[in-house]
Each structure stands twice: as structure tokens, then as C-alpha cells.
Design goal:
heterodimer; A: alpha/beta; two-stranded parallel sheet; 10% strand; B: alpha/beta; 6 strands; globular
């Protein structure tokens, strides 16, 4: 309802037949909607461009306000849902709620996060202008004209409140309940106020101002009476409802965990049974599964559930590197991290050196038990130690053409302004200490 | 130190013995530990009782009065912390105190710090080897503290953000030396290796560790509270 209408189809709008056998149900679109999401939902349902549907609605609006009525009817009867024009592109959206926000394709969701506000504003302005034009075009009797403005006010108020209710529902799916602002309240109040003013204006216009006081009193008395009678039930009902909702969320969470455990743990157990005579492989599988399960159980909410992300904090980077080396070489690596800080370029180099040290420890010192990795952030200094209890070696005795330790660890640290120390005793294992100053914040 | 050394080392001539109660809700795990450390003539450890939940644990511990209880952190009926709370009088007994060693698979700092503050004398992970476990049991029986690298990491983390604390909290803070010792533990060093590295005796290392443990139990009001609050643990 934003663009200027080049009338193409007139009143024969492509209104869907509600009794027909639709392959999917009609929903109003929550994504990228301007007002109620009706046009977008319809467009998605019918497979038409959104702008066409909007044009038709505007056209119908001009035709004696039919469009507005129709729109209101759709708004009222059709549930808000996921759908709309590009619904088929991310069908998993509804089920995965907040996670879907990141997993979207480049055009769909990213844009939705910011764009609607501008679009909505635009739509609202267009709507107001349209209303003005409409109002000035109405050449009715003076009396009817006087009623027009209160009706418009009431309409605007109702639209505001409904829109608010939709937002509340959407927030509920996305579990964005934490973001409690004043805005929803203000919007709701504004809607109620608009409706109130409209109704009052009509009452005044009807000339019953004298009775207004007593009418209001009576109305108030009725409202209070109903509140007193129904109040306890209402409170009870909301409590029950929210309790039930909580239970449902819990059940859903449990189902999600169960599904995950089922998939990955049982899978791993099967693999372990199948390769029971290869202790190295069994150990590798078990360690990998343990790590994944721990990440699931103990990681703080909201992070770590989707893997395959490049870590941007030191602690994550150390753990990721250790996990990968462990997987590749089948040697357990125990990681202890004290403190945390964001990764910068120098720390990235340190992480690479540390990974190299872990690989060495796993390759040459793996027989002596677990490799111990310790990382500490203290002030500006980041310290990492990698220690194995293998046979150890003499660095000076390593031939000059073996560049692993010299270049990948010591050289890399020095090039980036850090230090690396190597301590190795013939039977006391090897320890690599890496120290780096991190960049100022 | 291996098991036989531990068994013979501290007693003059006669073998060292320790009576142990195993508290864990997984029967398989109890059986495994029992098999690994319970050969009394080899390790010197005698498993005198087992329990699978809090009530059973308290009953068994009161009845058998072991030197050491191997305590799982997660237990039906309130967890390891509840066992500690209800055994407070046994721990305080000056004659034959019962000591607790937390043995956990949990990675969550609040679980571990919780049992330590409840009065456990140490914390080891379930990946520990049998010989190390026997060693730890005897150390705890002697009244020392036993830290695994992971616990040392937790403790360092807890005390890390205290660079400019008020003066009167001095008692609760870690000294430079204690921090050093903890750092070496976190890096996977054994007590003996730490002693060699810092040119002190093993006894001194042990007393540093005990001091850390005491401070950890004392400092319930400052660093730990702040730390736990920051991580929304309490």
C-alpha cells in the first residue's frame, strides 16, 4: 500500500478462495510487514509479488473503502505466522526461533532486522496522507463529515493496539521477552487513547454531553464490578497459562537435548562398538564425544551451541585448537584456562605457535599420558604452556634442517614480539612456554 | 609416587592403611574404583563402605567412620554439598576426623568450588589414574589438600581479578608464592616437580596448597562472591 496505483485489475482482486483446498494455510507474514502483514501473507500464499497485492488493496480502498474493510477482516481472522513472500526459503524459521536469526541466507533475515522500521514509518506516513486525501475527497453531508474524524481516530487506535498484540506474539516465539521496553506500553496506551478520543468525540457529537459524566460513572461502576467478580479467575487463569507455557518450554528443551544425545551419543557408541579392537580409535571417538557433550551441558546459555565458528576469544581459541589436535592425533589434551581476552593479531600468532606445540607434544610425547595445556591472561600478558610427559629431547641435538620447533614456534613468537622457551629433559617430558603482550584495548 | 611407595612410604616399617568410603550414584563407577584401588594388600586402601545417595552416605559414613570419603559432586538427594553439611560434626572431630575428597566428572566451576567450600579437602577428576588416586587418598588422610590442575585453574581464576583489593582482606588473598604453586599445579606439575622447580621441600608445597584451600573456604564474602555473581553462579 505504498506505491502509486497503476490500476491494473480493478475491483476483481485476486482474493483467495477460503474454501478451496489450499496446499498450505494462509498466514499473515511477520517478516517484513508494513502494517498487519496481510498483503505479504497473501502474496506469499498466492505466489504474487507483494506490491501487486498492496496495489490491489489500495485500489479497493479508493473504491469506497472496501480495501480497508477487507484488510481489517484478514487482519482479524488470519493468524500471524511465518510465511509471506520468501517463506519457502527458510522454512525452519518458526521451529528454531532465535537460532534461525543467524543461520539465514544473505537477503532474507539480515535485512528484516533493520529494514522494517523504516518501511513501517513510510507506510504509516503514506497511510496518514491517504487518510487525509480520502477525508478531503469525501463529499458527504456536513453531519457525516463530522463523524469521519472520530471514526478515523478509532481506526488508527485499533490498528495500533492490534499491531501491538501481533508484536507481542512474535516476541513470544523469538523468546525476546527480555527486551522489555517502554515502547510497547506507550504504543498500547496511545492506541487506547486514540480510541477513547474517537469514542468521546462521537458521544459529544451526538449531543449527549450533559449525560457524559453519569455515563462514565456508570461505565466505571460496571467495569469495577466485573473486575471484582472475574478478577480472581483471570489472575488464576494467567498464572495457570504461564505455568503451562513454562512446562511446555521445558519439555521442548528436554526434547531438544534428548534428540541431540540420541543422535550424537548413540552414533558414537555404535562406532565405538564397531571399532572395538582399535583402542586408539575408540579413545579418539570417546574423547570427541565427551567434549561435545560437555560443551552442550556446561557452556553458558546462548553460545557454543553452533559449532564451526571461528573463535574470537582466547579461551575458545585454546580449547578449539586442543580439540582439533586431540581429534587428529588421538592423544588426550587437558586444557586449563585462567582468564580470557579477545584475540588480536599477535595472540593469533601465539595461538598458532601453541597449536604447533600441541601437535609436537601429541606426536612425540603422547605415550606419557595426557598433554597439559595451560593458558593464562594476567594483565596485558598472555602465557601459554604446553607440556607433555614423553621421552623429551635435546633441542641442540635436533638437526638444523628440522624447522618445526625453530620456525613454527620460536621464530613465529619472536617475529610477533613475544618469547618462546623450550624446556626438555631426557625423561622428564617437554614443556613449551609462550609469552606475548597483547595489544592495548 | 606410586601406590606401593605410598603404602610403604610414610609408615615406619608397617604398611600405611586407609579406610575409605565410596559415594557415587553410578554403580559401575564404584565397581571400577573398587577394583582399581581396593586391593588392600597392594595399595593399602580398604574400601569399607559404599553409598549411592545422600541419606545412605551419611548413614554409612557415621557407621564406619572412615579416614577418607571419596565424594561425587552430583548425588541424588542434595548433592555432595549436602553430605558435607550433614557430616560437619564428623569432619570436626579432633580424634579421628573424616576427610572428604571430591571426585567429580563435572566441569562446572560452581560444583567444584561448592564442595571445596563445604569442607572437602581436595578435588580430583574422574580421569585420574588409580595410582594418583591412591596417592591423593593418603595425602588427604594426612590432612593435606589435593588439587587437580583444573581446580587450580578455577581457584586462580577466582582470585585473578583482585589486583587492587583493600588492605584488610590481606588474609584472604593468595600470596605470590601460593599463586606460583597453583600455577604450576594448573600446568600439570606434580608436587615433587614443583618442589624441585621452586627450590622448596615437598612439605612446603603441601602447606602452600593447604593454605590456599583454607583461604578458599574463608573467602566466602569477597572475591568468590563477586566472582560467582559475575558469572551468575549464585
Amino acid at each position: 500500500m505504498t506505491t502509486a496505483p497503476p490500476r491494473t485489475e480493478g475491483p476483481y482482486a485476486p482474493v483467495p478462495d477460503p474454501d478451496g483446498p489450499p496446499p498450505r494455510r494462509l498466514y499473515r507474514s511477520a517478516d517484513g510487514r508494513l502494517l498487519g502483514g496481510v498483503a505479504r501473507g497473501l502474496a506469499g500464499h498466492l505466489g504474487l509479488p507483494v506490491s501487486w497485492v498492496r496495489v490491489v488493496f489500495v485500489a479497493l480502498l479508493v473504491a469506497q473503502g472496501m480495501g480497508a474493510l477487507l484488510y481489517a477482516a484478514f487482519w482479524f481472522f488470519v493468524p500471524l505466522g511465518v510465511g509471506g513472500v520468501d517463506a519457502h526459503r527458510h522454512p525452519a524459521y518458526g521451529a528454531y526461533g532465535a537460532y534461525g536469526l543467524e543461520g539465514a541466507g544473505p537477503d532474507g533475515r539480515r535485512r528484516r532486522v533493520r529494514r522494517p522500521d523504516k518501511g513501517q514509518l513510510f507506510a504509516l506516513i503514506a497511510l496518514v496522507i491517504g487518510a487525509f486525501v480520502l477525508a478531503s475527497n469525501f463529499e458527504l453531508g456536513g453531519r457525516a463529515n463530522a463523524y469521519l474524524w472520530p471514526v478515523v481516530l478509532i481506526g488508527a487506535g485499533v490498528a495500533l493496539v492490534w499491531r501491538q498484540a501481533d508484536n507481542a506474539r512474535r516476541a513470544q516465539w523469538l523468546e525476546l521477552g527480555r527486551r522489555k521496553g517502554v515502547l510497547p506500553f506507550v504504543r498500547g496506551a496511545a492506541g487506547v487513547l486514540l480510541v477513547g478520543i474517537g469514542v468521546t468525540a462521537i458521544v459529544i457529537l451526538q449531543g449527549s454531553v450533559r449525560n457524559l459524566g453519569s455515563v462514565l460513572q456508570a461505565a466505571l461502576a460496571v467495569v469495577v464490578g466485573i473486575a471484582l467478580l472475574a478478577g480472581p479467575y483471570l489472575v488464576r487463569m494467567t498464572q495457570d497459562l504461564s505455568e503451562e507455557r513454562l512446562m511446555r518450554i521445558r519439555a521442548q528443551e528436554r526434547a531438544e537435548v534428548a534428540a541431540h544425545v540420541h543422535d550424537s551419543v548413540l552414533h558414537t557408541l555404535t562406532l565405538i562398538q564397531r571399532s572395538a579392537d582399535d583402542p586408539r580409535e575408540v579413545a579418539r571417538l570417546a574423547r570427541a564425544q565427551e567434549r561435545e557433550l560437555r560443551a552442550w551441558l556446561y557452556k553458558p546459555e546462548g553460545r557454543g551451541k553452533d559449532e564451526d565458528e571461528e573463535p574470537d576469544r582466547l579461551a575458545d581459541a585454546v580449547r578449539t585448537a586442543a580439540a582439533e589436535v586431540e581429534d587428529a592425533h588421538g592423544v588426550p589434551i587437558e586444557v586449563v584456562v585462567v582468564g580470557d581476552c579477545p584475540l588480536d593479531e599477535k595472540l593469533g600468532a601465539q595461538m598458532q605457535a601453541a597449536r604447533e606445540a600441541m601437535v609436537n607434544a601429541a606426536k612425540y610425547g603422547g605415550s606419557g599420558g595426557a598433554v597439559q595445556v595451560f593458558a593464562e591472561v594476567e594483565g596485558r600478558t598472555v602465557f601459554v604452556s604446553v607440556r607433555d610427559r614423553g621421552p623429551g629431547f635435546d633441542l641442540d641435538a635436533v638437526p638444523g634442517d628440522r624447522m618445526g620447533v625453530r620456525e613454527s614456534i620460536i621464530g613465529r613468537m619472536q617475529r610477533n614480539g613475544g618469547t618462546a622457551r623450550l624446556r626438555s629433559a631426557p625423561d622428564g617430558g617437554t614443556e613449551v612456554e609462550l609469552e606475548m603482550e597483547r595489544a592495548a584495548e | 609416587m606410586n601406590a606401593t611407595e605410598a603404602a610403604q612410604g610414610s609408615g615406619e616399617g608397617e604398611a600405611r592403611r586407609a579406610r575409605v568410603v565410596l559415594v557415587d550414584d553410578h554403580r559401575m563407577f564404584r565397581t571400577g574404583v573398587q577394583a582399581e584401588i581396593g586391593q588392600t594388600d597392594v595399595t593399602g586402601v580398604e574400601v569399607v563402605g559404599e553409598a549411592a545417595d545422600v541419606d545412605q552416605a551419611v548413614t554409612v559414613i557415621t557407621a564406619t567412620r572412615p579416614e577418607v570419603v571419596l565424594l561425587d559432586v552430583h548425588l541424588p538427594g542434595g548433592g555432595g554439598v549436602e553430605v558435607l553439611r550433614r557430616s560437619a560434626s564428623l569432619m570436626a572431630d579432633p580424634e579421628r576426623p573424616v576427610r572428604f575428597l571430591a571426585l567429580s566428572v563435572s566441569d562446572a566451576a560452581e560444583d567444584v568450588i561448592g564442595v571445596i567450600r563445604g569442607g572437602a579437602r581436595g578435588y580430583v577428576t574422574k580421569t585420574i589414574t588409580g595410582t594418583d588416586l591412591v596417592d591423593a587418598i593418603f595425602r588427604v588422610a594426612d590432612g593435606d589438600a589435593v588439587f587437580s590442575p583444573r581446580l587450580a585453574g578455577f581457584v586462580l581464576d577466582a582470585f585473578a581479578s583482585t589486583d587492587a583489593p583493600p588492605v584488610d582482606e590481606d588474609l584472604d588473598r593468595l600470596t605470590q608464592r601460593e599463586r606460583e604453586v597453583l600455577r604450576l599445579i594448573a600446568r600439570g606439575y606434580a608436587y615433587k616437580e614443583i618442589a624441585k622447580q621452586l627450590f622448596i621441600s615437598v612439605k612446603t608445597v603441601e602447606s602452600h596448597v593447604s593454605a590456599v584451600l583454607r583461604k578458599l573456604q574463608l573467602s566466602n564474602r569477597h572475591e568468590l562472591t563477586r566472582w560467582a555473581t559475575a558469572r551468575r553462579l549464585i
